[in-house]
Amino acid sequence: MFHIDFNEERLITMIMYGIVIGKVEMRTFEGNDRHQRSVLNFTFRDSVKDFINVAYWLPPKDLIIISSKFTIGDVVAIHYPVIKPKSEERANTYTPWTPFSFELTLNEKSYMEKIEGPKATQYEFLACVPCRAGNDYYTLAQIVTHGEELVKKTNGINVLAGVQQIGALKTIRTRRQRETDYDNEEKQLLEVLLFDGQTTGVWLTFWDSEQIKFAQRWIPEEHIIFCVGLRVRYDEYRKVYGLTATRQSLFTINPDTNESAQLYESMRSIPIDDLLNVAMDGGFNSIQATVVTIHELKQYLFDEDSNDTFIVQCFLSHFDLDGPLNQVITKKCIFCNRSIRESNGLNECSEAECRMKLLEQENLSTKESFYLNVHLTDQTGTITNVKLGDDIARKLLKCSVDEFILMTDEQKTKLKWTYLLEKLRFGIQIKNSSNYTKPIIRIACIFPREYLPSSMDDDE
Predict the structure, then answer these.
(1) What CA dihedral angle connects 97, 42, 126 and 264, to 10 degrees?
(2) Residues near 295 by beta carbon (within 8 Å), at least 6 away in sequence
(3) Which of 28, 153, 2 is nearest to 86 (CA)?
(4) What is the pLDDT of residue 181?
(5) pTM exceeds 0.70 for this model
């Protein structure tokens, strides 16, 4: 890119071609002259070794137009950038690490354009080149078992993991304190469930709109992500350690490294039950789902490329709550969230990282979760062995696992008949892949009763 030494700003008259490997939402400031100025930060790469941060300063209405014309992964041309020394204090807070001691600034005299065709092809391969060494990362097991220490790494950590599921976009209202009062602001967040060959169910949270748009393009169980600059955080709601993307974060899809290839093969060996035991809260998109009968749902099981969502109105015709407890409840490792297979009378996790963590603290090695196989029936037929995981079971039964275990057999039977043969409306996911011996059918959500028509024979 550049091989120069300088101590002051200077204009570059050449055109720079490269790919955008990172971008965050624009910020707006009130200037001393009471005029608003906005800045758009992105990271630009033109070779395997060289990438640099860019700050584009314009009035808000002009910068919004510029920002809408390119996104992460686009090849662009930059005209008339200004090169200047990097502010280390600012760089460590708002922008990703780069190998240069300088950065680029764009203003009213600069402009940029998206490039397509043969010229773009020269740079597109850079999207698969990570910004750190391929072996410079933490595993998900290390995050789960050593999260308390990793929280202290304020500059973030690198992670290599696969995409397990992508949740629904959520809107929440935040309460930020001002000098004299509080400011309520609506923010969007996206949660992505990560997994690797050892650990399932680690959450990555996005708050930035540009990063959210990029993450929504990821494909579950197909994409490996090399993440740079993630913060480890403790999730008070789930009581586990997770990850958060920041303005310093960069993401590489399917990095061209040996570690990525090995991880892909390792992930394919994870039992499908372990993947389905971790469910996305709010991850079912009813708008995109197809309303079907049980007979129609069965037809999709033969579609090898089907990974679809459906809505079906039916009865629970098999719901064995009062059967053997091990057919209702499963044991899972408290650290990596994988199912426990009893061996020699022990219920400890087989992962070495988890066993080492147990030596450091006095705690149980397992937790218990609902996990049932149910049958669904309507006037067109019955479908068997449908997975009902912990989150949906708790919402349906309105009780925790501990409360269920304390119930008598009579109470469990009464609870079963509260729902058995009752008209219900489910959101269904089908997971169909060459990695599985047969399709996996999973209840992803339960709709409130007000969504039900008056008769099972009514049109959907």
Answers:
(1) 70
(2) 380, 381
(3) 2
(4) 47
(5) no
